[in-house]
Amino acid sequence: MVSTHIVFWRLMSLLVKPSGGTELRVDADPELWVYRSPSACRPGQATLVQCYEKTITSTRKEFGVHLAELTVDPQGALAIRQLASVILKQYVETHWCSQSEKFRPPETTDQAKAAIRELLPGGLRESISKVRSSVAYAVSAIAHWDWPEAWPQLFTLLMEMLVSGDVSAVHGAMRVLTEFTREVTDTQMPLVAPVILPEMYKIFTMAEVYSIRTRSRAVEIFTTCANLICAIEEMEKGAAKALIFPVVQQFTAAFVQALQMPDGPSSDSGLKMEVLKAVTALVKNFPKPMVSSMQQILPIVWNTLTEKQPLQTTVPPHCSSSPAYSVNSKGKQKFTYVRTEVNYTEEVDDPVDSDGEVLGFENLVFSIFEFVHTLLENNKFKSTVKKALPELIYYVILYMQITEDQIKVWTANPQQFVEDEDDDTFSYSVRISAQDLLLAVAAEFQNESAAALAAAATRHMQEAEQARKQWQRALVEDP
């Protein structure tokens, strides 16, 4: 095997070029390429990088194998492993299959492909998340071309990792499945769905075994498969009946339970967001089998929109019909979103996924509004929105309020206010999302929406007056 340090410096030659007095020596054997002064390097130009890459890949057919070896070597230096894993991702994209849009010759040899497929699954158990994620991406990219014909054992390996109890292995396998299902072909889906969907159901429902984020990813994979199966159904009638209808009812029942679960060790806004995306996909793509479940789903989604998070256990009787309010020590009611985002009187610890994306309450609100939009687009469910208009518009107005952050930004920069509030703005917020929903229901139910809007405005004014009186009373009572 080639010296690790020699291969490392050869990798570096792809990304940097010599500067100053540093001299690059290229020997006749590309295995011996080294820097005389590797410490004096700076970012290189594309032309030089392309030159080195072309030379290396054309003269060394085992280059991809060396990258894989460096990536999964547990004794290797972290910097080398991370660099190798990044270049490995690029290598698979450009040199694995001549049918790829990003392909550049030469194509990886069959012998090298077999060696890489043998090496990479071990990297999915890697404790270093960045290396593990890069390996997962490479595995999924290879699977797109090689599964099942050239890599039939891949899914068996992934399923073994999912039940291994190894946190890193579970995360690695789920990352592969997430990436793979996004690019799965219509010819692969009939083989993928019967294997993946039952396992995703098990993971999602086993809250005592799998983390919230892993279960969220299982729901995301289900949603991706559901959308693709719908697309396949348009070309091949019967695909949905064979691939997803057998599991729709059990998934729907699990989704209902998940939406009812209060935030805690086994649930949060991020998980509920993914669940609502899945429910929305089912309602949009397969409305007929979802009709029987909507009587259960609709009240729960509605309760999620108006979710109650009391600061104490007792709620005044007059607030029982408004579960979106919480109660502080003075008996004042505050809407959850208003408390945490508009007035910013309470800190909220938003969950974060493995990619660093913040999964805040506002993301859950976006999913709920998208769900309502989907109901409006389907004649089977449009009437349910019409019946709920008075309460829906009441809460939509609450979500349209300006947040504390927006006040600060717009006060400092009025031009930003103009840009953010413009009808053609590219920015998106809960406020804009609520406005869009209000306009959508108003366009669909003009007379009913006008009456509901007037009633909601009156109700808000009455509650504001009541809150003002309570505030004044509190000032008098405080010493």
Describe the protein in words.
It is found in: Nucleus. One of its GO terms (molecular function) is small GTPase binding. This is Importin N-terminal domain-containing protein. One of its GO terms (cellular component) is cytosol. With 479 residues, this protein is mainly alpha-helical. It has helices at residues 4-15, 46-59, 63-72, 78-95, 110-119, 129-146, 154-162, 167-183, 189-205, 212-235, 239-243, 245-260, 269-285, 287-290, 294-305, 336-342, 361-377, 382-387, 389-399, 404-412, 414-421, 430-444, 446-477; strands at 16-18, 24-25, 34-35, 41-43, 325-327, 333-335. It has a domain at 317-477. It is built from 23 helices and six strands. Helix 10 (212-235) runs parallel beside helix 13. The longest helix has 32 residues, at 446-477. The radius of gyration is 28 Å and the shape is globular.
Strand order in space, largest sheet: 1-4
SSE arrangement, N to C: HEEEEHHHHHHHHHHHHHHEEHHHHHHHH
Number of strands: 6
- Looking at the structure, what is the overall shape? globular
- How far apart the termini lie comes to 80 Å
Strand residue percentage: under 5%
Main sheet makeup: 2 strands, antiparallel
Average of pLDDT: 81
Summarize, please:
Keywords: Coiled coil, Nucleus, Signal, Transport. With 479 residues, the chain is mainly alpha-helical. The protein is built from 23 helices and six strands.
